[in-house]
Amino acid sequence: MMTTRRPWLLLGLVAAALSPAASRPLDAQPAAKVYRIGMLEGAEVISNAENLAAFRDRLRGLGYVEGQHYVLELRSAEGRPQRLPDLAAELASLPVDVMVTRGSPAALAAKHATRTIPIVMASSGDPSAEGIAANLARPDGNVTGFHILVPLEVGATRLRLLKEAVPGAARVGILWNSVDIHGPLLVRETARVAPGLGVALKSLELPRAWPSRPGAAFDQVFEAAMMDQVDALIAVEGSVMFNERARLVAFAAMSRLPAIYGLREFVEAGGLMSYGTDRRDLHRRAADKVHRVLQGARPGDLPIEPPTRFELVINLRTARMLGLTIPSSLLQRADHVVE
Hints:
This protein is α/β, with parallel strands linked by helices. It is 42% helix and 19% strand. The protein contains 14 helices and 13 strands. The strands form two sheets. Strands 7-6-8-9-10-12-13 form a seven-stranded mixed beta sheet, with helices on both faces. The chain is elongated, with a radius of gyration of 26 Å.
């Protein structure tokens, strides 16, 4: 039986050797797809460096090697949101396999640029109110990802943390933007706990005319804060607050006002404290969603999720400049301390 089967075996080997696939050089063999991932953001690239590193690290953990399994196309408006539509259109025309956005303006620009390319929001404001997705549980379109709307009790927590850092603060100003729908709710929750902490809360609402003259609008609320002789300040997060964080931090420093903010970028810019969403964690989770999309999941079937990790960041350099001694009990609870 061995002798009768050998000719057929030899014929099979000859046929395999002469096949197109076998005759193709090794370096000409079909390569695995290299995905093109677009990232669109409105703020400066440097402000997103740690978040971007977290995104890349998580992709690496999922088995994606940059340059081998994917290339990253980064586009930043560098603080000029009017550039976002053109940048989104540029990414869509490449085209990219998936678009990752940071901030609601970037998500909206991406959504207007394409209805077919999957969009994963690494962070956004209020997707429902901003017209990004009507149903967060089932977006039913090409957008999924995460929002940064914190639970309302975070407003109360910020006031407690500020009061712990500055026990003598009796009048606290809370700076907020009525255009951000979540803002009034956080202000209301903060006002609810203020009397029990011995605090008179002063509302500092950003004038609705701010888009045309943001500098003048902030000057107006800063003047109100000084006239009311507030002892400390709370800044409710939002896109306009984030874009004007240098102005806010400079005012607090000039006025020697201890302040707590919603995001760590304010502390990195020189602010005293922040308590809010850990956006590095959101970028890691965004990498997971990107992986699922690249594996064939429909964005519309993936819920737009809330933050689950929050961080306390304290700047001791700023505390020293303000003549404050931060209690050790507070420092021990901090996730990060700027020395």
